[in-house]
Amino acid sequence: MLTRCGLSPATLGSVSIDALRNSTVCLVASLTLLSCGINRTQTTSSDDVPIGSALVNPALPGDNPDPSIIRVGKVYYATSTTNEWAPYFTIYKSTDLKNWKLINHVFPNGFKDMKNQWGENNFWASELVYDAKQNRIYAYYTAHNRETKGNPGLQCGIAWVDADKIETDKFTDNGPVIIEDECGAIDAFELQHNGKIYAFWKNDGNGCGKESWIWKQEINESRTKLLGQKTKMFTNSQPWETGLVEGACFFTLGEYVYSLYSVGGCCDANCNYKTGIARTKDLASGVWEKYGNNPIMASNDKWNCPGHGTVVKSADDRLFMLYHAFNKDYDVFVGREGVIEELTIGADGWPVLHNATVPNRAKSDLNFTDDFEQDTKLNLVWQWPSKSERPQMSFENGLNLAASDQNHGLGTFLGQYIKTVNFNIEANVNVNETNAGICLGGAIFKSKWPGELGGIGITASNDGLAVFDNFEGTYTVLKDLKISLSKTVQLRMQIADNGKQIEFFYKNDGEKWVSLYRTPFNAAKYVPWGMGYRAGIVVKGNAPQKGSFKSFRIANY
Fold first, then answer.
1. Hey, which CATH number is domain 365-556, 3.40.605.10, 2.60.120.200, 3.10.20.30, 3.30.420.40?
2. Catalytic: 246?
3. What fold characterizes domain 67-360?
4. Is 66 a catalytic residue?
5. What is the mean pLDDT of the chain?
6. What DSSP letter does each residue of 127-139 carry, written as one string?
7. 0.85 cut: is pTM over it?
8. Are residues 499 and 521 in contact, defined by beta-carbon separation less than 8 angstroms?
9. 394, 378 Cβ separation under 8 angstroms
């Protein structure tokens, strides 16, 4: 399915990393690398802040696959796949490659922001590029066209925003631009080279029993129309390149155009993703030399199935790659996280990574608190199922969320990434006639599509408390307690034993926590395509009922 170009080790032989960094080859590379895609190098000024040597990983915690990164002046922007969740396609901002803030989405209101509301699901592989001449940031992305059945419905759209307004404005959608009538198109990428703009993509041949190739075609300056004829770049032609080729990015280094690409299964517990690199001196020739030491990145003792990323040049002329991988301590329950490493040049002139990055982000960095009584609008971290409209809500003495019986009886759901596999979910709920509470959301077992939401959680109402589960497709009450609750009640879910145990608690005002129910949980069963679980709030009922929340908290341990 998806992924982007990753990088990693290969063989450094007896040459040390420090030696490589100080070598003439590395200096030349630092001066000539343009980045994965459009030229992202900017003229540096004396007040640019150099990047410290100690990076923090994961750079983008939680379910952030297929990341893309650019630099505009002193500021870095990143994006990632959102799969079957809205809003579509994250936009993160950083000034140091360590601290990232979610500032926007390409489509904040989901499909309603897309041209003719064309996208239905499969929101994959967003790719940012900066056009300095236009001062615009473009976002290439994949979605499934609601008007087209099967694999041909996978199409690549392009949206844009003025670079100065990326934090405040919506992107303008050009709609689907790259279309493959037979097997569909995914993983679009852009390279500006020798005065022309080229779009690259993968025909999703593995999805319809045919070969998958990386293709190239010139595109116009407004990114609304492909020009001339498309041409083949390369496919999975070597024994190690299992199954498919995808997630290719492109950059220039010296006299070569390089491509990093991924092969194999990307996205579930059985993944075997690997990354290779190839190069050519002439894009028009279609002749590519693949590195003799491929794959240059594969699973190691810390990260599983790394790949599908892009490269950026920092203000102090260092090269960094942002790609995705599963944290081996979390299996696939958290999803593919954004990982950043510094890129160096091997003694043979090929780009490599040190392949020794460790997860070193403090768990306290991953905690989250939302005081709804202070909010005037919804925090950007909250998500809802991609095929649904944005839930109705208001902020009056807290968050008032419209009730429903959607999602196989689960109700209206707002969730966000989980970032570890041992954590507490808590909320303060204003008790009324509506069942309102907290929930761990995943996918219905054997669902028709990965975004068919299921969950397990606890709600409170005037009737008391209920622990529920609808992961098997039917809403089932596991435990109920008819009890008089205070005006505001606290609810807690404790996820423990690496996601294998859940315990439910409640607390009336002025009282102690009371354990209501405890159950084993088969976390591996309800997490398709490695998308990761969501922790959030849920309101079950009928319009015009609303659930009312004072606060929400996730604490990781």
1. 2.60.120.200
2. yes
3. Tachylectin-2; Chain A (2.115.10)
4. yes
5. 90
6. EEEEETTTTEEEE
7. yes
8. yes
9. no
